[in-house]
Specification:
Largest sheet: 4 strands, antiparallel
Radius of gyration: 10 Å
Structural class: alpha+beta
Distance between the termini: 14 Å
Strand order of the largest sheet: 1-2-3-4
Number of strands: 4
Shape: globular
Number of helices: 2
Strand content: 35-45%
Length: 59
């Protein structure tokens, strides 16, 4: 099963702070597909691996 959420505003800031990543973007897409999690940074135009437990916190 695949699920996803688009983060913005306060949730995005919280997510970036937790991962210690630069928060220059206005939105990030988090996806979980079976047991694999990743996030898509629209500014970088690519997906990055993400810890499954962190991803679940934001869904």
């Amino acid at each position: 099963m695949q699920t996803g959420i688009l983060l913005g505003n306060d949730k995005l800031k919280e997510f970036c702070k937790e991962l210690n990543i630069d928060c220059n973007t206005s939105k990030i897409l988090i996806k979980i597909n079976n047991n694999k999690a990743e996030y898509y940074n629209f500014d970088d135009d690519c997906f990055y691996e993400l810890d499954l437990e962190i991803a679940k916190k934001y869904l």
